[in-house]
Amino acid sequence: MEEVVSDGSDDEGAYDSDLERQLEREEKLLAEQEGDDDHKRLAIQDRARNEALQWTSLVLPPQDFVPDEKCEYKPEEAITLDFVHGYRGWDCNNNVFFTIADEVAYFVGSLGVVLEPSSRRQKHYSGPPNRSMKEVMSMAMHPAGSIVATGEFALAPHILIWDLSTLATLKDLSGVHEGGISALAFSKDGKRLASAGMEKTGRTVSVWDWKNDKKTSPICSQTLKTPKIIALAFNPRDDVLVACGVNMIEFLRIGLSRTGQRGMSPSMLCAAFTKTEFSLTTTIRNAVEGLCLTGSDIGNIYLWKREEQIDMIVSAHRSSVHAIVTFVNGFCSGGKDGKVRVWSNDLEPLNSFDISAVLQQDVIVKSVDQRQGRILVGTHTCSILDLDQDTGEAQVVIEGHMGGAVEAVACHPTKPLYASGGADRYLRFWNLVDKVLWKKKMLDHPIKSLCFSPDGKVIAAGHALGSWSVHRVDSLDEVITSKDRKKSIFCVKFAPSGRYLAVGSEDSMVDLYDCASDYDWVATLQGHAASVLHLDWSIDSRFLQSCGSEQDLLFWNVEEQTLIPGFEETCDIEWDSYSSTVGWSVQGLVGTGLANTSCSRSLSGHLLASGNTDAMVRLFRFPCIVQGAEANMCSGHVGTVMCVRFTCDDTFVISCGSEDRCVYQWRRKMRYHRGPQTSVSAEEREVDEDGFPVTGEPLFVLKPQTMAVPPTKYRKPDDADEPPLGGLQMEFIYGARMHDTRNCAQYTGHGHIVFLAGATGVVYNPIQHTQKFFNGHTDDVICLSLHPDFITAATGQVGRKALLCVWNTYTMQTLSVIRGFHDYGICSVSFNSDGSLLASVGMDVDHSIAVWDWKTGQKRASATGHVNRIFCIAFNPSDDSLVSAGVGHIKFWTISGRLLRGQQGKFTQGDKKQVFCSLTVSKKGRIFTGSERGEIYRWKNGDVDSVINAHHGPVFALWVCRDGLCSGGKDGMVKVWSLALKPLVEFDMRTQSTGVDNSKVRSVCWLVRTILVGTIDNELFEIDIEAGAPKLLLQGHRSMQVNGLATHPSKRLFVTGGDDHSVRLWDMDSRKQIGMRMLEDAVSSVSVSLDGNHIACGLRNGKLVILKLRTMRPHLERKDRKLAILEVKYSANGKFLAAGGGDCFIDIYDVQSEYEWIGTCAGHKGSILALDWSADSKQIQSDDERGNHLYWDVESSKEILVAAEVRDVEWSSWTTRMGWSVQGIASKFQGPMGINTTCRSSFGDTLATGDDWGMLKLFRFPCITPGAKSKRYGGHSARVGKVRFSFEEKTVLSSGLVDGLVVQWRYL
């Protein structure tokens, strides 16, 4: 809402025009919330998305960036409101109160605030748990001083009654008023509450029995004819209520019968009843119900006895009287003249205080409250003062910006200090620690933007009307003022080197100035179509990016003063800050559908704060690259959030608002444990010359992740930061993705088999038992189709803006990549008869269908598929029409220009619509579908031609060829049919599968005399139809998580364990499974003993199982823990076994004494994730999920607290993620928390890591420089759970926590 400010004149009509303007603005705001508001909002969202397409299709990621699977989810850290500077005083009366606890209660934006003045601590009430409070515009204090009521400004406003101490909601009243709650008042006993609404046709006054839980509606209501009710007050005996407003005052009895009404020329702006009987008995007799005092807009105070006007009228203020509060011996009043006056009960003036003189600016007193000789004063300049009633001494409790929007904030680069500026022209500096105003200065023009210099000595301000200025921070003296533009300066930004100042304007220009040459003009950068809103410099100050109001993002070479035409040259630039609301790093903001006004990247580089038009401050992960990414959201503002900034140490986020006119200070909740903190008084604290803390440490203290101490004799080699000499080559993938796909294993024209595994397309040679790999995808590949040439394959993946890749199965080269149309994933693809077209089905809400000319990447046609899921799509070779099938439907499509026209298939009479799980079409156009009930349907011209009962349960797979039809079902049967659906032969896969769940067939492919079968256990079989004997080709884990991976200490064998409860033994040379054991629960970890005789298995239920490696039979079991055992490892000498897990303990067992327990290491605060033994088996190092890296003495089972004691220990293995030797593995983009596993090579010179983004990396070992160079290898679709070297260092093995793969790599 706009400010109502007087021009200072004393004529009686001055305030009338102000009041009329305020009423007009309120009506305008309410009109904006009417029924067409949804259409406006949707239009804005659509426009924002369309504008975003200008740059989202062009921006490129950094070359070394690897996407985080968590990037679309909200960050683990959050922000909470710490302090708000300002209060709503410009358009509200009597809204500041003392509490019973001597605190101060008031409201700002959409918050109720309780301030403890001495400690500068605020509590913030944001509404009941199930909804956030909307804009607040009225407040009333309960007589007890411990409860308040707040009223909202909204179409359907709520009245919320809440406890000042606990912030608990006591009552939520709604359903009566419209438009807003303009006034509230409690009765003397606090049992009743009066409210005034802002309805269009008359203003409603209601009285509530708010403590009565059974009564949710008011006791009574009455509609009054007035533009606005400004104040309400109960008389001391609760039977009369006075309502004051524009040109009116009305007295109502409970029941709201009118006892008296007066339509008056002056408007009544405030009201209060005397606390004791009035003393002028000669004028008014028998005043037993209390006397009413009202203040008018012409400066008079009227004395009333109910409906009768007292003859005495006091001229109290030179203009409007906005506030009156009564106490036992008199009352106080506050007015537009900036005065607070104290009166006796005889209406004799006792004292007068000039608040304008205290604040050194013209103010209007809008609120007063009195308690124990102190007067609380609220002003229209958004300041609150605590005034001594006897001495007149005043203390500023809260101060804020006084007029219009607060549009800019900037944080000091080294000190706990930030600045704000706005329409009131004041440049204000705020102390972050003490939460007070440090300095302020009024500038010549409204402030649009702010920026501190890199050394923090000066601050630049951009102004309205095209000027900008620079001021010294210490003295606020002006360094320079310049005006080279005619319109507002929306952004100013110093270069990190301090050499340049960039100034962006509404004139669409960016001007550069030389700071070292008294800010001489250097150049003007032209290229934007409209206003320049945001600027960011590169770290080396060579490049500048600018963001415009038309969603245009431009990059500039500052040295050459030229526009960089493409995004390729800028994708690897490291930016000193990121405040632009468009760009690759913040493209995820687009999906919100809101106009993003500001954003700020944290100093650490992994968080992004944003503000937009919905009044929310959001915290995202950075980079934020997934459109519609989740965020932690914080409410409190009203209207647009104009600017957000992180403070110099990332401890706080600062934001400012347009309509609330306040500056919000949000404290960041740290992810890691805070170190010990002590309370230090202001007198004891060491401060600099400006009074800011000098500690040598950041404002927050993090517990170290690792005690990193280098070995005594270590000397860093010159090539230590270079990538290692060795490399990886993918050799074999164990298992195929069958458990949730359909017909995703097929024969190629060369007799090979193409199937899917993780993010990889695999071509398998069944004769040589070798594989080739296509790695063009970035996420799980879930659908496959072969071209009619049986050489070209099309595959689709999951994920936002999913990729559709076409590639050659012989050369493994990419032929085409289509992206940008399907959201969330592609579930089915199909080539047409000549292979020129490719159809795809998306996993979006509309299950969209598209037809592509895949060679050019052009979309030929598209349509909304169906309201329900589509499982399959296929071209009809006879006429190149399309068929789709899925939940409750089959649909036949024809291509008509750029449109697809669909027609529902017709079922036979009495037949219910089916869920179709599979679909196939013969070359002659015969269409077959398999249903979830086990039936096979044959279709002709869109109608059911024939139906047979084929399987018990869903038919997951169908394949048609000239020889007939083949089907596979959940019942584990593979059946062969004639094209007339006559049974020919069948095969029972339940007797052949060696997996966990051997009863479900997910894929079939019939080629001449062989049938390729894929089962839900991720196994592949080949059936010779004539011989009838299935042959096992490939095996893998059934589960999506393979948690355990360990190599044999002396043989080329390895062991895996997964969520499918299985432990499997594999041969690296034959690339086959040679042993398996099913256990009672999921397997979380495995380890092979030094002699190779035993396999230790940690289970999810806390049990430890020892298997004999040769027979895979149990040797013994024991259960000492309740939670999962996440890591097991035999000691270097083979005598001990260590087991750690979710209970945060490491148990040590004596192997030679039949695994007798001998000790427990206790000290971790989180689940044990990795551990290593020393070469002499005397020490252990371990990591936990909370980032702690600890060392242990095995003999005593006690923690080694001094890291220096183990600095020269030789470790038999290195699999922990933390420690001195691996401190360089952290990426500059994701940090160390995305790394799941490490493994040092057998010869000790190379380190392999696996991360959350499906990448394997090779570093030199030790790796001690953060951001050290590495070699990267993709293949997994997401999280890599374990990575291990073989004993002779020829092979690297990796397991997946999402794709369920075990990948064998050749170490070159």
From TrEMBL:
UniProt entry keywords in alphabetical sequence: Repeat, WD repeat
Domain EML-like first beta-propeller: 122-385, 770-1022
Protein name according to UniProt: HELP domain-containing protein
Stored InterPro entries: Beta-prop_EML-like_2nd, Beta-prop_EML_1st, HELP, WD40/YVTN_repeat-like_dom_sf, WD40_repeat_dom_sf, WD40_rpt, WD_repeat_EMAP
WD repeats: 482-514, 525-566, 1042-1076, 1161-1202
Gene3D superfamilies the record matches: YVTN repeat-like/Quinoprotein amine dehydrogenase
GO MF: microtubule binding
Pfam families in alphabetical order: Beta-prop_EML, Beta-prop_EML_2, HELP
Domain EML-like second beta-propeller: 408-667, 1043-1307
